[in-house]
Amino acid sequence: MKTLLEVNHLTVSFFDKKVPEKVLDQVSFTVNHGEIVGIVGESGSGKSMTSLSIMGLLSEHARILSGEILWEGTDLLSLKPAEVRKLKGSQMSMIFQEPMTSLNPVLKIGPQVGEVLKIHTNMSDDAIKAKVFNALQEVGLSDAASLYHQYPHQLSGGMRQRVMIAIAALNTPKLLIADEATTALDVTVQAEILRLLKKIHEQRGSSILFISHDLNVIKEICQKVIVMYEGKIVEAGAVLEVLNSPKHAYTKRLVASMPGARNELTTINPLLKLTDLNIFYKEKCQKKHVIKDLSLEVYEGEILGIVGESGCGKSTLARTIAGLHSDYEGDIKMAAGNPSMIFQDPYGSLNPAKKVGWILEEPLKMGGITDKRRRRSMVEDMLTKVGMDTSVKNRYPRELSGGQRQRVSIGCALINHHRFIIADEPVSSLDVTIQSQILDLLIRLHKEYELTIMFISHDLNIVRHLCHRVVVMYLGEIVETAWVRDIYDHPWHPYTQMLFDSILTNEQKATTAADSSLSMQTSDHKDGCCFYHRCQYSDRHCQDQKPKLRKMHKGHLVKCHKAEDWA
Amino acid sequence: MKKKPNYNLICGIVITGLILSITVIGQFFTPYDPNELNASLKNAAPSLMHLMGTDNLGRDILSRVMAGIGTTLFIALWTVFIGGLFGTIVGALTGYFGGWIDEAVMRVNDILLSFPSILLALIFVSVVGTGKLNLIICLGILFIPSFARIVRSEIIRLKALDFVKSAKVMGAGHLRIIFVHMLPNIVVSMLTTAAIGFNNAILAEAGMSYLGLGVQPPDASLGRMISESQAYLFNAPWFSIFPGIVIILTILGFSLISDGLKKVSGAAS
Amino acid sequence: MKYIIKKVITLIMALLVISIFTFVAFSILPGDAAMTKLGTAGTPEKIEAMREELGLNRPIITRYLDWLKDAVKGEFGESYQYSSTSVASLISERLPTTVLLAVISFLFIFSLSIPLGLISTKHPGKWLDTLINQLMQIMMAIPSFFLGIILTYIFGLVLKWFQPGKFISPAEDFIASARYLVFPALAVALPKVAMMVKFLRSGILAETKKDYVRTAYSKGSSENRVLFRHILKNALIPVITFAAMIIAEILAGSIVVEQVFGVPGMGRLLIMAIASRDYPVVQAVVTYITAIVIIVNFIVDMLYQLVDPRVNTA
Fold first, then answer.
1. Is the preceding omega at residue B218 within 30 degrees of 0, hence cis?
2. Contacts of B244 in chain C (CB under 8 A)
3. CB contact under 8 A, C293 and B114
C-alpha cells in the first residue's frame, strides 16, 4: 500500500495566553491509500489540532514549531499558501462536527456545494449545477432539485451533514478528514452517516481520517486507530488489537470506561405516578402538544432510564415533573416531596458569578436553614461526599473542570436530603473517562442514600449498564417499557429495534434499519401510530388506529399492533 | 511572548484622572470667580495670568471651564443613575416574565429608541422648560430604553441557562432569581452600557446647552460657552477651543477606560 | 404578508401617538396662541375673545381631530410668530435643504466607513488597524457642533473655502448649495463614520471566527473569496438595521449642525420655534421628522426581511 499522508514529529503550540501551550507533541503517523484511520482521544488530546494542521486551518494563534506533513512525498509546510489551496477541497477535504454552523446561513445550499467545483475546475455553471444535483442524490438526499434552492436552516442536522459530505466528496479527494462528524447527531442518523462514509470509501477509494471520542464509532468504521492523550500519541495499531487488548495505561482506561455495578431492586413501591399526562409547549404563538396521554410509574429506589432521540419530549417531561413547566393536563402524584434535578451542560448549570460554596448553600437557604455555621458544615460534608476537596467551596465555576462541575451539581441536588433525582443527560457532555467517574459516583450515592433516579440519556450503552428499567419514547409517547435485561435481549417495538441497531457494538446487527433520512416529523395522522412514517412493518391498520400500551410479559409493555402478531 | 500593557486603560485613567481632578478642585477653588467681569481684558489671548484666555466679557475661561465641567459631570451622573435604575428594573422584569407585557413594553421601547433622542429632549424641554433639573429628568428618562433593552436581552440569555432552572427547582422565588442569581452576571454589560450612556449624556447636555435650551445661567456650561464663542471665532478662537477640547477629553477618557475594562474582563472570563 | 400589515399598523399608531403626545403636551402650557398673537396689546377681555375666535376653548379631543384632519391634507395652520404665514409654507421652504444635507451626510458615512472598516479588518491588531481605531475613538468623542465649529474655523475662516453664514438655498443654486452643505454634512457624518467603522469591524471580525468560514477555507477558497463571497453578506445584514439608526441620528445631528453653519433648514426652524413658543410650527416639524424616521425604519425593516433568508423562510 502506498503512503498517502505521512506526519513526522509534528509539534504545535498555542500563543494566545501568557504561557505558550503545547497542543501537539512529536506526533507521527501515516495514512495509506484507501485506508480508514481513526484518531481517538478526549478533549485536549490534540486530535482535532492534528486534522486542522494537516488541512492548514490552524488559527493565527497556533504555530507549528517543528515537524513535517508529507503529502505524497511533498512537505505541505514548505509549500506556498496558493499551492496548498489547490489541494484543499480537491485532493483533501474535511467535514466538521457542527453542520449547522459549518454552512453559510445566508447562501443557498446549491451554490455552497458547487463552490468546490468553481474554485478548482473550469466547468461551466450549468455543468456545475448538474454535478451538484448528482452529488446530493448520491449522499441520499433524494429531493435534490428543491434542496438546491434552500437555506441551511431549513434542513435537519442529518441532512446538513450529508450536504457537508457531498461538498467534501465532490472532487473525489484522496483523503477525507471527518472531525467528530457524527457526534452532534442522533444515534439513528449517526448510523446512516457512517454507512455513507463507508460507501464513499468503497466506491471512490478515498482514504478517511476519522476523528472521534467515541470508541464504538471508531470500531465500526476504522481499520487502524491512533490513541492520543494530551497532545501525544500513546498507542497505535489495528483497531481490534488496540481496543480489545490495550497496552498503554491510558488506552486501558479509555476502553474500560464502564462504571461499576449497581445493586438490584428488591421491592416495588411507586414513588411517582403519572396518569394520562398531556404536556403542551408554547413556541412562537403556536401551542405544541409535546407529550401525549403518557402514563408511567417510577418505583422507589430504582434507576429508571428514559431514552429517545431529540424531539421525543424526554426533557420536557423531566422539566414538568420537576415543576419547571406547568402547562399540562393530567395527574402527577408524588409520594414524597419534589424531585431535584441535574442538568446536562456543566458550563451552564452553575451560576458563573457565584462561588461554589454559595451555590451549595442556596438549596439550604431555600430549605429554611438559617444557621450559617450549620449550612457551612453541610456544604463541606457534601463536597467530601461527592469526592472533592473542601477548598473548592471558595472557587468559581470557571475554575473547575466539567467533571468537577457535575459533582457540584450532584451535591446541590442531594444537599437538602432530596431522595428523588431527575438526571437529564448528566454525563453526555463529559469526556469518556470522566463519564465513568461520575457514573460511579452516582451509583455509590444511589446505594448510600437509597436514591430514586430518573436517568435521561441518548446513550444506550450507559443506560444498559446503569438502569433497572428502561422507557423508550418517540414523539411524546412511550412506545416500550421493560426491565433492562428484557429489552436489550428482545426489543419488541420497531423503533426500539431501530435504536438498538444503531448502537455500534461488536455484536451483529439483527435487522436492517429503516430509512432515517426522514427525520422525526409530527405525524399528520393523529389517530394512527406515532411511528407509522418510519416503520418498515406498518400497514393501513397502523395508520388509522393508535395502538395501546399492551403487556407482553412481566413488566414489559409495548405500544404496537404488530408486536401482538409476533408474540 | 510578553503581554502587552493595556494602553487603553492606562491612557483612559490618566485622562479621566486629569479631568476629575480639575473638576473636584473646581468645586472648591478656581483662579478667578467664573462670573467676574473684567472689561479691560476682553477676548485676551491665553497668558500666564489667564491660562485659557478670557471671553468676550473679560471672564477667565479656565475658571468657567472648571465650573462647567462640574455641571456636565453632575448631569451625566444623575442621568445614568436614573436611566440605569429604572432601565434595569424594567428590562429585568420584562425579560424574565415575558408575555404580552413584555411585547408591549418592548414595542414602546423600540419606538422610543428609533427616535433621535435630541428630538425627544427638545419636545420635553419645550413643554417643561429648560434648566439643570429639567435636563436631568429629561435625559434620565431618555436613557431608560437603551438600558432596559440591554438588561432585557441579557436576562433572556441567562434565562436559558441551566443554573436558572436549577435555582427554580431549589425553590427560589422569581425576584430572588432575578436580582440575586442573574443580575451579578450582567454587571459587566451594565457598566459598559452605563459608560456609553454617560458619554451620550455629556454630548446631549453640551448640544442642548449650545442651542440655548439646556443649562441656563448662572449655571456654567461648556456647551453654552461654545455657543457664545462662535461670534468671536476668528478673533479669539481659544474661547471655543478650550471648552471643546475639555469635552472631548472627558468623553475620550471614559471610553478608553470602558474599552480597557472590556479587555480585562474578556481576559478573565 | 401578515407581518407587513402588522408593521404598517404599528407605523401609523406610532405617528398618531407622537402627534397626540406633543399636542396634549403643548396644550398644558401656560401662554397660548391668543396671548402670543395679541402680544402686549392683550387685555384679559381681548385675550378671551381671541381664544373664542381661535377655537381654543373647545375640548381637546375636538381640537386634536381638527388638527389631524388638516395635517393629513398637509395644512398645519398658521405660525404664531410669523402671523399669516402658513406653517406648511415655512416647512416646504426648508425641507429640501435639510433633505439635501441628510443625503450628503448619508453618502459621506457609507463611502467613508465601508472602506475604512474593510481596511482595518485586513490585518487586525496591526498598526493600520490600531491607527484607524484610535482615530475613530477620538472622532466619537467630538460633539457634532464642535466639529462644525472646527470645520468652520479651518475651512471657512482660515482656508476660506466657503463663507460661513452665506448659505444659498438649493432652489436657487443647487451646486453652490451642495458645496456649502459639504461642511455641515461632514460635521454630522464624521462621528457617525466612527460608530459605523467600529460596528463593521466588530461584525466582520466576529464572522471570521465562525465555522462556515473554516469550511470555506477547507474548500480551498482564497482570503478575498472568503471575505467577499461569504463574510460580507453575513456582516452587512446587521448593518441594515444600523442604517435605520444612522438616519435618525443624521436628522438629529442636523438639528444642531444647521445652527452652527447658519443653514436655514428644518432643524433651525424647530429651534427658533421652540425658543419663540411658536407651537403650531413645533408641532408640525416634530410630526414631519417623526414621520420621516418611522417611514425610514419601516423601509429598513422590509429590506431586512428581503435580505436575511433566515427571517422569511423559517
1. yes
2. 142-143, 146, 149-150
3. yes
